[in-house]
Design a protein that fits this description.
235 residues; alpha/beta; five-stranded mixed sheet; globular
Length: 235
Amino acid sequence: MRRICWGLCVSLLCWLPGVALADEFDRGLATLWEVLWHQSGTPTRIVRWETAIRVRFRGLAVEKHREHTMEALRAVTAEAGVKLTDVTDLPETEQAANLSVEILADTQLEDNQPCVTYLDFRTETRIDSATMQMRSKDAWRCAYHESMHVMGVRGHPAGQTVLSYFPWKIDGLLPLDRVMLRAWYSPRMAGGMTPFEALPVLADELIATMPDKAAAIKARDQFFAATVQQMNDYA
């Protein structure tokens, strides 16, 4: 009996980590799938920067919030491999910017949306310019969230990412954020891709972070099959 019980215990110890890793991968992949959709349930297309970003700060209490916001912008652009330059202090003739960060009065915007990012593009493939607006009292907690939007990632998934409305983390990027940015700006990704085209690129970037890649690949294939079936049922 002791041998049987010990064998069962060993089997469970071997099995449980694999299950936990599979669950972690499934949750991560579900979050990456969710980020490709608007909250309204409509799909987004991949949009991203194809030029360097030149940012200019303006508005109230700029110096109070500038360094933390630049820290967030440096973090996302470093993962994406996009050059970032702060032109705020340059001579006026050299201040041409394609990203404007505006610190607003606390009475502006809405309590349920104290910060917002607008992406401007002529075609839904490439970002031409962007504007990030944050109320002064909310700028610190909004900086990383809005910086992800600046890079073209538009969804608000519930999983563990700074894009979530659940406060997993607000003062730095989470592992899934880094996966998103590396995939979003990888050579395999292209502006204008639909969620179905983009998901395999995101999935492979997530697999690269997993210790058991064979198990992750199996979980990916199961997730793809289930997702296609769900979309067929919905259609």
